[in-house]
């Protein structure tokens, strides 16, 4: 058993001290080369677009600004204010369309109209049966692809990589896929297990992320990641020539294990090969609960401030009327990866299999309670958070 003071993997889009510097040769760790029996032409590593793939963003390969970001030729964002104007104009166009008209549109038209609609409105339209999960999954996959292209990757091959390795994409990169315009992602976190991380490093090297530094354990900047990472084995930082950054976080167990210990619920989301999973559905209402009871590290406080500045409220407890130990957002409620309050949007190619069966690929057992359990209203002596993910578990004393 591990007693976790913090799983403090930083949000990768925030400013860091020395962010612009590239690790020097003395710090660099060579990414593992492909093994002799690895086929460099294996199709899951290529970025050739599949014209039959309903989730690819081929429709927007020329006018990338139609998905919410205006980019220069080198892929960098021109301006957040301009991007926000594009999103607002798109949403205004949606507001001008009568709901009943949306129900009469074909999928291609819906795909264009809904491209910048956040997940809350997409769910509203889905509940009214004007769109279905395939429409929602297509829109979200398009947005994922567009964000990945900005950092030199594409959804087609990355999702194949996630499927073959069991890795998960998590951290703040997921939020703008759900809620367009909330932030502009510049880098991302991939969570892997000990058996697959070398394949992921090799893949990223092929995609231009040739600067690879092991920053935990050891490394001059390893302290940035907080005190004690008992459920993380290693962290690698990779950069390409444009200095976009990808963190590969290697778990001692399942890749899901560190995600269940994040600092707050708004970032307890992940992207798997089959779709997007949001563990706390209050996130789509821009609400969240902290996963710290006291002695919050300065770095975590800065993360909280960042999300509050972007319109997400982070509470110490669920500050609305609810039933303790029952409501999914209550810190005292014991949650499961397989309970009904997990929001899971499948990508178009994975609709035939029930969502819960897809999530079983992440873990056979995954239950947790937030570290802020004692902050809520019901009297209880169960005042600690915990995580159980297959054969690994941790007590959250925060």
- N/C terminus separation: 16 Å
In terms of DSSP E residues, the strand content is: 15-25%
Low-confidence stretches: 6-29, 33-44, 49-82
* Helix percentage range: 25-40%
Shape: globular
What's the total count of β strands?
A: 15
Strands across the major sheet, in which order?
Answer: 4-5-6-3-2-7-8-12
Radius of gyration: 20 Å
Mean of the pLDDT scores? 79
Q: Structural class of the secondary elements?
A: alpha+beta
| Number of helical stretches of at least 4 residues | 11
Largest sheet: 8 strands, mixed
H/E element string? EHHHHHHEHEHEEEHEEEHEEEHEEE
Task: Describe what you observe in this structure.
The strands form 3 sheets. The protein has an 8-stranded mixed β-sheet with strand order 4-5-6-3-2-7-8-12. It has a 5-stranded mixed β-sheet with strand order 1-15-14-13-11, with no helix packed on it. Strands 9-10 form a two-stranded parallel sheet. The radius of gyration is 20 Å and the shape is globular. It has helices at residues 80-95, 99-104, 107-113, 119-127, 133-150, 155-165, 175-178, 197-206, 256-259, 298-309, 355-359, and strands at 2-4, 168-170, 187-193, 211-216, 232-239, 245-251, 269-272, 275-278, 287-289, 313-315, 335-336, 343-346, 366-369, 385-389, 392-396. With 398 residues, the protein is α+β, with helices and mostly antiparallel strands. 26% of the residues lie in helices and 17% in strands. Mean pLDDT is 79; it is low at 6-29, 33-44 and 49-82. The chain contains 11 helices and 15 strands.
Topology:
Elements: E1 2-4, H1 80-95, H2 99-104, H3 107-113, H4 119-127, H5 133-150, H6 155-165, E2 168-170, H7 175-178, E3 187-193, H8 197-206, E4 211-216, E5 232-239, E6 245-251, H9 256-259, E7 269-272, E8 275-278, E9 287-289, H10 298-309, E10 313-315, E11 335-336, E12 343-346, H11 355-359, E13 366-369, E14 385-389, E15 392-396
């Amino acid at each position: 058993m591990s007693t976790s003071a913090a799983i403090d993997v930083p949000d990768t889009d925030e400013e860091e001290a020395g962010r612009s510097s590239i690790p020097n040769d003395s710090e660099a760790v060579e990414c593992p080369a492909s093994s002799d029996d690895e086929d460099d032409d294996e199709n899951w590593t290529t970025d050739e677009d599949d014209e039959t793939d309903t989730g690819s963003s081929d429709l927007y390969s020329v006018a990338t600004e139609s998905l919410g970001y205006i980019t220069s030729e080198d892929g960098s964002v021109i301006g957040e204010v301009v991007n926000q104007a594009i999103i607002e104009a798109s949403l205004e166009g949606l507001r001008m369309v009568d709901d009943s008209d949306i129900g009469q549109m074909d999928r291609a038209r819906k795909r264009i109209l809904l491209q910048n609609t956040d997940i809350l409105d997409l769910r509203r339209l889905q509940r009214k049966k004007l769109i279905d999960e395939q429409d929602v999954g297509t829109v979200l996959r398009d947005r994922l692809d567009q964000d990945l292209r900005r950092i030199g990757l594409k959804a087609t091959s990355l999702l194949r990589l996630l499927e073959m390795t069991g890795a998960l994409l998590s951290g703040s990169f997921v939020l703008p896929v759900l809620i367009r315009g909330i932030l502009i992602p510049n880098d991302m976190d991939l969570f892997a297990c000990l058996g697959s991380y070398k394949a992921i490093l090799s893949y990223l090297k092929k995609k231009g992320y040739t600067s690879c530094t092991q920053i935990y354990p050891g490394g001059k900047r390893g302290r940035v990641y907080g005190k004690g990472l008992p459920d993380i084995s290693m962290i690698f930082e990779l950069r390409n020539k444009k200095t976009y950054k990808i963190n590969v976080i290697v778990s001692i167990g399942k890749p899901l294990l560190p995600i269940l210990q994040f600092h707050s619920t708004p970032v307890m989301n992940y992207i798997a090969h089959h779709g997007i999973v949001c563990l706390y559905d209050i996130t789509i209402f821009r609400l969240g609960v902290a996963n710290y009871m006291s002695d919050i590290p300065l770095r975590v406080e800065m993360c909280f401030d960042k999300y509050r500045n972007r319109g997400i409220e982070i509470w110490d407890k669920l500050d609305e009327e609810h039933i303790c130990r029952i409501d999914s957002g209550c810190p005292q409620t014991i949650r499961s990866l397989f309970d009904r309050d997990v929001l899971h949007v499948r990508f178009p190619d994975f609709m035939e299999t029930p969502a819960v069966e897809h999530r079983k690929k992440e873990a056979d057992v995954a239950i947790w309670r937030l570290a802020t359990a004692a902050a809520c209203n019901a009297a209880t002596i169960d005042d600690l958070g915990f995580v159980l993910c297959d054969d690994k578990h941790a007590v959250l004393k925060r």
